[in-house]
Amino acid sequence: MLTDAKHEIIRSRSNIKIQNAAKLRQKKYRDQSRAFCFEGRKLTDEALRSKISIKALFYTPSNSDYVDSLIGDFERIPVIESVYEKLTDERSPDGVFCIAEYLDSIKYLDAIKNEKIKDPFIAVSLRDPGNLGALIRSASALGVGTLIISSDCADVYSQKVVRSSMGALFRSEILVVEQIDSVPAALSQMGYSVFAATLHRDSHILTSVSGIDNICYAVGNEGHGIPESFIKNCGGCVTIPMSEGAESLNVTLAASILMWENYKKRL
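Above: the chain's sequence. Below: its structure in token form.
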């Protein structure tokens, strides 16, 4: 039997540990086990720095020295290359696959009630996992304290969201809210003014409202924007001024600009 230092190497793709780990690429299995997966040394290092609870780490023999250098009480499971192929969805995997417990900083709510919220930002119906991951990364970098997203956004625990966030997910306070249309009123009770980023009959240019204290911006779906049912509950709408002839910005770029408008006030 092949061995790797202290551990027996898994060489069968039908091994129950491999089968269960591979299932975590699907949301229903993630929710059942309250665990998610991600790949790569960089994300593993970020996870350990962020002190998230890693349950198991699968790795190829070429990563033995790296895995042995990691500090943490979690299962370390070596696998041969052909078995690792069953786990990975990367084009060029580096042979490190982690399973971690769901994060306490990510909460699922019907509506916002008594939650502690600071410097919020809202995303409504953001379906593309790459866009959501990039938005989470920007939110972490640009001072968003609480990211509020609708329950029909991409799953925050999908591998593409985790990968696109570049580890920012591990450090983020995120509320996934079912009744997203109720959020503007709830934030208003906390002293925030919610402005939807959308071209609307009542839209203001961003520079004309950015001086408002305790402003919270919201962005919407990549193709359809923010629904009217949400807009009507907001304090107003804003557009980002652009060069003549430009049609629109990518939602994550637009979100980053809006986040910066709030962040620079605190510099």
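The chain has two domains: 3-101, 106-266.
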